[in-house]
Amino acid sequence: MRAAQLEIMNSKTIANQFVRMGARFRIVRPENLPWHRRRTDYALDIVSDKWGQLFEMQLSAEREAQFTMNVLQCDRHDRHLLLLVKTPTANDRFLCGHDEREWFVAAVPGGASSVTQAKLALLPTEVREAADHARLNQGQRTRRHNRAFIRQGEWFFVPAPNLCVDKKRILRNEPIRRGGGKPHMVAEVFRTGGDRVRVCARFPNGIIEREYQALIARDPKAARWGWQVRFRNAEVYARGTVRHRDHAMITLHEWHRVWMNTENTTRQMANVAFLD
Fold first, then answer.
1. How many CB atoms lie within 10 A of CB 10?
2. How many domains does the chain have?
3. Shared domain check, 190 and 243
4. Same domain for 176 and 260?
5. pLDDT in tens, 34-90
6. Is the separation of the CB atoms in 208 and 197 below 8 Å?
7. In this structure, is residue 87 part of a structural domain?
8. From the CB of residue 161, how many other CB atoms can be counted at a distance below 10 Å?
9. 209 touches 196 (CB < 8 A)
10. Which of 42, 71, 114, 251 has the most other CB atoms within 10 Å of its CB?
11. Residue 39 is part of which domain span?
């Protein structure tokens, strides 16, 4: 009984830290959720109720006994906090906060112990190199706009002024997205290289042609799933406006190389249910 009370007290402490940055937090049991939302492992999500958005941790009572949660830092002025989830096998870190218009959660690689360290850990190597070349200090690197790059959500745009582009290969009003998240719509996109894949709602990350043909052979109805041809792991360049309903529009006046943040390198990415 005492252990259960300690868990409840800890969840209240966590919730109070979210309140400090202007958000709400709750723990829910999988059995109390619709079947399509239930997860076998714990999951951190952003959901909505009649009072607005809130952070929701889906966690069974059995799993909760094996977990410890702590807020490593809460920056109430920046409206960000760093959440540590200790599991039997790993220490998972999540940056939770408000980015322009909406709340977000991002899985953080490495051993960050502060909000600033978490933001820096989300910079891909190529973006850090651009920041080094521009001699940006730590504060400048965590801004959405600086002289090395522009950020919108999980995407970074680094100037590529010497890029030569075949105009016939420019794609107009093209989406860029991570997995099944809401796409960022780009006025002009140029791709080179990469692996040709087929994408649909059931396979948002794409499957190669051999996998597609095997799937159709097993289930002919799969051919009607609304497939599109995309290229995975290609070099992607963007120019013009970039729009997303959760972020302010940005305008790229020249070609920029597109890089995604480092969330996809983390083990705990599978425990983030929310995708922007």
1. 16
2. 2
3. yes
4. yes
5. 887 877 788 999 999 999 999 999 988 888 788 889 999 999 999 999 999 999 889
6. yes
7. yes
8. 7
9. yes
10. 42
11. 2-110
Residues 104 and 165 in one domain: no
Note whether residue 9 is domain-resident. yes
Q: Would you say the pTM of this structure is higher than 0.70?
A: yes
For residues 206, 209, 213, 214, the Cα torsion angle rounded to the nearest 10 degrees is -70
From the list 191, 139, 184, 134, the residue with the least C-alpha distance to 168 is 191
Q: Residue 223 falls within a domain, yes or no?
A: yes
Is the pLDDT at 274 greater than 60, yes or no?
Answer: no
C-alpha dihedral sign at 121, 127, 129, 131: negative
Give which of 150, 105, 146 is closest to 274, Cα–Cα. 105
Q: At 252, which amino acid appears?
A: L
Query: In the numeric block, which tokens belong to residue 12?
Result: 């209240």
The DSSP-derived string for the chain is -HHHHHHHHHHHHHHHHHHHTT--EEEE-GGGS-GGG--SS-EEEEEEETTEEEEEEE--HHHHTT-EEEEEEEETTTTEEEEEEE-SS-EEEEEEEEETTEEEEEEE-S---SHHHHHHHTS-HHHHHHHHHTT--HHHHTSSB-SS-EEETTEEEEE-TT----GGGPEEEEEE-STTSPPEEEEEEEEES-EEEEEETTEEEEE-HHHHHHHHHH-GGGGGS--EEEEET-EEEEEEEEEETTEEEEEEEEEEEEEE-GGGG-GGGGGB----
Residues 6+ apart with CB under 8 A from 65: 3, 7
